[in-house]
Specification:
With 558 residues, this protein is mostly helical. Helix content is 72%, strand content 0%. Helix 7 packs parallel to helix 9 and helix 8 runs antiparallel to helix 9. The model has no long low-confidence stretch (mean pLDDT 84).
């Protein structure tokens, strides 16, 4: 090998995968030095470009030599070429290369076979990848890992990862740490904590070195399966080799379980916290409905001179909305303007929602109309605000029509808001038409919230017989809430006969909530059936049925 060729190959090895300019310079050097016809140079260039952000260049180089028949590819050429094809998303070209492989008699090579499995698996042809695997005359651990990875990357094939791993064990193939990482990943996705424990035992028995990525994968299994004691134990064992990923996995596990105090303990253990860590903890408090703690943590973040970003502000504004703290919300808005924080569509939507929930519809709509772009969540926040603040169903309907005219498709939450606006304004015909459009035009499956809004609309309008017929069409699990709404309407409209029928249905449905018993008691009192009133009150006393205490707040101006 010439000194010039050695120098070129060394440059390829040292170049970063993302340094396209370096690859292009090497390509120019090989052409200038007349070394492009050397197979090692060709293979190295194809391999380098196949891993770069421009894998199409590898395909162009390959095409040039195939058409010119300047040099024959070998078993080192095709794995890189096939990688370039699947990374570029060119299955048709990959099939063409597969044909070349077969023609060259290289389809029995294990490395080429692994690359073919990766090609078909990555492009969604899992069955073809499986057939190739089964037809391989010989396989190595990488072959098994490739198919395991293919199954793990396809949401409908996660169980197949565990099946293939069992087959791997039965055939006496010892997996490596890559195999275990893939299997642990699949266990976490399908919630197979017990299988994860068995694989953990295999790792210990087989003496596989507990690399950080492997330990993190197992930690993820335990947290996703709710095995927080096992997760905490493993985390404690990882004391020497934890990284930020380890902390994040355990932190998210506690957040998903609703254990924000434990999550805060993990957060406090992190010595160097980046903006992502702060945002995650603030969001965890908001998600767990602890808005005061979220705002306290935001103040601590400011004290430690950590600069917030758009994600921070969305969570903080949500906390203000939850507390209905208009003054603090205004301070946050001013803070964003003073610090030139970018107000993207998510921040804008959060501002609209905050002002609406804090009762300042004027500021909510001003923010809404000043936004450069709006999505369905922005429109939904504005429509919901209009519906909740007595601005009339007509205005909400106009906004809904404007949203549709702008080509924005309403979602489930949008229809809840607009149906609620119709209910509070007595727009029966409009509400019924919207419900029909939701189901037929937008193919949205109604949920209890939609049923509740339409039922409330009919009940408020005194259309109790229609409301009863509507309840009959509802799923059985949602009839208790619907019947309670209808019974309350019967009391308001003095409909004793229908009310008694609904009361009997509620008793048959065996609803034990405090609200149900109070409604039944009030209905029986209205009907003058005092024995039934006493019986209902006795049942409440015997079952210790209690009303959940309400919460109210007073904003004292000083």
């Amino acid at each position: 090998m010439s000194r010039q060729l050695q120098k070129i190959l060394m440059c390829l090895q040292q170049a970063s995968l993302y340094d396209i300019k370096a690859f292009d310079q090497v390509l120019n050097q090989t052409i200038t030095a007349a070394l492009i016809h050397a197979r090692p140079t060709w293979n190295c260039l194809i391999r380098a470009y196949s891993r770069s952000p421009t894998p199409i260049t590898a395909i162009l180089i390959y095409n040039h030599f195939i058409k010119g028949r300047l040099i024959l590819p070998d078993k080192y050429t095709y794995p890189a070429m096939l990688r370039a094809c699947w990374r570029a998303g060119l299955l048709s070209k990959g099939k063409e290369v597969h044909a070349h492989v077969t023609k060259m008699g290289l389809d029995s090579d294990v490395y080429v076979g692994n690359a073919l499995i990766q090609l078909y698996g990555t492009t969604g042809h899992v069955d073809d990848a499986c057939k190739l695997f089964d037809g391989m005359p010989q396989r190595d651990v990488a072959s098994w890992n490739t198919l395991l990875g293919v199954y793990n990357d396809n949401s409908g094939s996660w169980v197949e990862v565990l099946v293939l791993f069992k087959r791997m064990m039965c055939e006496g193939v010892g997996g490596d740490y890559i195999s275990m990482v893939i299997v642990f990943s699949a266990c976490g996705k399908i919630g197979e904590g017990n299988f994860g424990k068995l694989v953990h035992g295999y790792v210990i028995k087989a003496g596989i070195e507990p690399a950080l990525s492997l330990s993190n994968a197992l930690l993820s299994v335990y947290t996703k399966c709710g095995e927080m004691d096992a997760a905490q134990g493993l985390f404690d064992e990882m004391a020497v080799m934890r990284d930020v990923v380890s902390y994040t996995i355990l932190f998210n596990g506690y957040v998903d379980m609703g254990s924000v105090d434990s999550a805060r303990g993990i957060f406090d253990q992190v010595r160097v916290k980046d903006i992502v860590s702060w945002n995650s903890m603030i969001h965890a408090y908001v998600k767990a409905k602890h808005p005061k703690q979220a705002l306290d943590l935001f103040r601590k973040m400011e004290d430690e001179k950590v600069k917030p970003d758009e994600t921070t502000m969305v969570s903080v504004l949500a906390a203000c909305a939850s507390l209905a703290d208009l003054q603090y919300g205004r301070l946050i808005h001013w803070f964003m303007l003073r610090n030139n924080l970018r107000q993207d569509i998510f921040v804008g939507t959060a501002l609209v929602d905050m002002y609406a929930k804090c009762g300042s519809m004027q500021e909510a709509m001003l923010t809404f109309y000043k936004m450069d772009s709006r999505d369905v969540f922005t429109w939904t926040a504005a429509i919901d605000g209009v519906a909740n603040h007595g601005h009339g169903g007509d205005k909400a309907l106009r906004m809904f029509s404007d949203m549709e005219r702008q080509g924005i498709k309403p979602n489930e939450a949008t229809f809840v808001s607009i149906l609620m606006a119709c209910s509070r304004s007595g727009l029966v015909q409009e509400g019924c038409l919207l419900f029909k459009r939701m189901v037929e035009a937008y193919q949205i499956q109604p949920k209890i919230e939609h049923f509740g809004c339409l039922l409330d609309l009919l009940s408020r309008a005194g259309l109790l017989q229609q409301a009863e017929e509507f309840i009959k069409l509802m799923p059985p699990g949602e009839k208790i809430i619907a019947n309670k709404t209808l019974l309350s309407a019967c009391i308001n409209h003095l409909e004793g006969e229908l009310g008694e029928k609904i009361a009997n249905e509620l008793i048959e449905l065996n609803s034990q909530s405090h609200a149900t018993h109070i409604l039944l008691s009030n209905f029986y009192a209205l009907a003058g059936r005092w024995a039934e009133v006493a019986k209902t009150r006795l049942v409440m006393k015997e079952t210790d049925t209690r009303k959940e205490p309400g919460i109210s707040s007073v904003d004292i101006k000083t």
